[in-house]
Design brief:
This protein is α/β, with parallel strands linked by helices. It is built from five helices and five strands; from the N terminus they run E-H-E-H-E-H-E-H-H-E. Helices cover 37% and strands 17% of the residues. Helix 1 (21-30) links the parallel strand 1 and strand 2 (35-37).
């Protein structure tokens, strides 16, 4: 990324990234690359920002689907469920370290702002 002079990075939500959360955040910080992450856990350990599904909402919905199946519903008859709630998390300390000023409109829309 340094050779290509990357100006920003978007980390995908691949499962392989979960055990390496802190390392990915550390490498982005070392390279001073503003990065958007797939889950707020990245922001909690120092990542700049995350736009992700509301995992608590998804777990509640998943529990309801499992309940239906355990009560005898045919899984093939249950409609496909997609996320409808999303959350934005921003780490102002990281933004400051990168020399970025976060727009007030963005911060107003964030569900979580870490200072």
């Amino acid at each position: 990324m340094e050779q290509d002079r990357a100006v920003a990075l978007l980390v995908s939500d691949e499962a392989e990234h979960a055990p390496n959360t802190a390392t990915i955040v550390e490498l982005a910080a070392k390279g001073r690359i503003p990065t958007v992450y797939p889950y707020r856990e990245f922001v909690e350990v120092g990542g700049l920002m995350a736009y992700s599904i509301d995992q608590a909402d998804m777990y509640r919905r998943l529990a309801k689907l499992i309940d239906k199946i355990l009560w005898g519903a045919d899984p093939g008859d249950i409609p496909f469920d997609r996320p409808t709630k999303f959350e934005l998390s921003v780490n102002l300390k990281t933004a400051k370290a990168l020399g970025l000023e976060m727009p007030a409109m963005l911060l107003a829309r964030a569900e979580e702002v870490i200072e």
